[in-house]
Amino acid sequence: MASRFFHHESVLGPMVRGEDRLDGLHGNTQIPKVVGLAREYELTGDRSCRLAAASFWNHVVNHRSYATGGHGESEHFFPPAQFPLRLTPNTCETCNTYNLLKLTGHLFAWEPDAAHMDFVERATLNHLAANIGRAPGELGYFLGLGSVGVKVFSTPFDSWWCCVGTGLENPARYGELICHQSEDTLWLNQYFACTLDWAEQGVRVTQRTRFPEAGTVRISLACDRPATFALKLRHPAWCALPGLTLNGRPVPVNSLPSSYFTLEREWHDGDELELRLPMTLRAEPLPRSEGKISAMLFGPVLLAAIVPDEPGVPNPAKQRFSEHLTARGKTDALPPVFVAPANQVLPAELRPTGRAPLEFSSHDGVRPADLTFVPLYRIYEEQYAVYFTRLTAAEWSAREGELRTAHEARRRLDAATLDLVTPGYQQPEVEHALRADRSEIEDFGGRKGRLARDGGWFSYELRVDPVEPMALVVTYWGGVWHERIFELFAGDTVVASERLLTNKPGDFFERVHRLAPGLTRGRTTLSVRFQSRQGDIAGTVYDLRVMRAAAIETSPGEPGIVHKSH
Length: 566
Description:
Blueprint: H1 2-6, H2 12-16, H3 27-44, H4 47-63, H5 94-110, H6 114-128, H7 162-173, E1 179-181, E2 185-188, E3 194-198, E4 203-209, E5 216-223, E6 227-235, E7 243-246, E8 249-250, E9 259-267, E10 272-276, E11 281-285, E12 293-298, E13 301-306, E14 337-339, E15 350-352, E16 360-362, E17 366-367, E18 372-375, E19 384-385, E20 388-391, H8 393-416, E21 417-421, H9 426-431, E22 435-444, E23 447-463, E24 470-477, E25 484-490, E26 493-500, E27 508-514, H10 517-520, E28 525-532, E29 537-541, E30 543-548
Helix pairs in contact: 3-4, 3-5, 4-5, 5-6
C-alpha cells in the first residue's frame, strides 16, 4: 500500500532522480512522506526509496535551511534565491524540524555520517530548544527570523496548532540521537549531559558537561567486566581541533571537522575521558545573500541580539501569547545592521560581557547602537534580531535616512492594518475561515495566490473596526494578458467589478476599495468574497488587507494604488 500511494511522480519521482522540485510545496506534508520512504527502504530494500530520502535531506539541510537548522516560510518551501526576501515572522515551522530529525536518524543508521549529527546539534539547540517558553503550555509554531522579532507562544487553553503537539514531544526526544550503537561500536553523537546503559556490553556511559555553555565534556565508564569495543566521538564541524585525555593522559586526535575519531581498546571500570571542544566566534551568511546578510554563532550556538524598546513605541511582547491571527511576531523597532569594512572577516567585534555564559556585547560594529548578544534559545520576552544586513560606514551614512524613512512607512502601514490574509497558505486561510467553490491555489513569481473559475468563488472572514471607515487593499499580478472580470463582495454588497488586463506588466500591484461606512458600522468581522463569472476567472489574489481608510495615501488620477514600502 505504501508503494502504491507514495510513489506519485509530482513529488517523489524527482527525489528518486536526485532533483530538487520543492519550490512552493507545503514543507511538513513532504517530510513525513520521506520518513515513510525511509521506513519502506528498511522493510523492502528498495534502493530508490533510500536514494529519494538521502536526496531530500541533502536539498533541505544543505541548500534550504537557515542558521537555526529550520527551513521554509509560512509553512512552505520557497525558491532558494528568495532567501533575502524571506526573513519574516513566519520562518522555520517547528514541526518540520521535528520530522526532519526523525528522517536524520534513519539516514545515520544506514551509513553513519558526522554531517547528520552536526545538523541534529544545530537544529536541537537553535530551533527546538529555542522555541519553547518558560511556563506550562508555551510552545512555538514558527521561529521568526524577521527583524525585529518577538517569539510567539501558545497558551494552555486558548490557542493550539500542530507544533504544540510536536512541541510537547520534543524535550522527551532530545536523547534519541545522542548515541548510536552496533554490536561492537558506540557512536557519541551529541555532547549533552546524559547517561547510557549499554546492556549488551554491560557498560554504563555517563557524560557530565555544561555544553554548550562550556566546551568540556567528561565521559566516564562503569563496566561490569572489561569490554572491548570501538568508541567513536564526533569532531563537530565548528571545532578546529578537539583535545582529549584518557585517564589523565593526552590522546592524539587526528581527524577533520565533521568526522569521527575512534578509540578502540579494552575498556575498564572507572575509565574516564575528558574532551575539550574549543569554540570560536564566526559569521554565517544567509544563503543567496552574497555575504551581505549574516548571523553570528559561537561554536554550535546561534546568537541573537537583544534589541531595547524604542522610546514611545510600545513593545507588543504581552500580545504574542496568542493565535498567529492576532500576534504579529515582530515589533516596530528599527532593524539593526552591521557596519564594517568590506574586507573585515567578522562583521562585528563581539566581546564576552562576563555577566553570563555565552553573553557578548558588540563594540562599534552595530548601528544604530551597540547591542548585547545571547543564545537564541535564551531569548524569551525580549525583542531580538538574528540576521543583520552588512554595510560599510559610507553605505550606512548614505542610507541611514532612507532606511529610517522606509521603516517608518512600514510601521505606519502595519499600524493601520487591522487584518491580513495571504491566500494559498494553510494557516492564514484556516484562521480566516476560508470558504470556496471551484477555487484553487496558484503559484507564481515565488508567491501563492487563490483564484476561482467558471462561476466559482472564495471568501474570507476579516476583522474590521465597528466605528472607523475601512478599506480593502487587494494585491494582484499586473501582467495578466487575458482579461479577467469578476465581482468583489463585502457581505452581500458588490464593492467593485474588478478587471485585470496588463494593469502593471512585470510587477504586482495593489488596488484599494474604500468601504461605505454602513458595511462595517457596528461590526467586528466582515465576509469578503471574490466571485467569478461563467467561463471566467476571479483573481488571482496574492494578499488581502483590511486597513483604516484614513491611513491610505493615493495619487491624483491613481485612486487604486496604495503608496507603501514593500
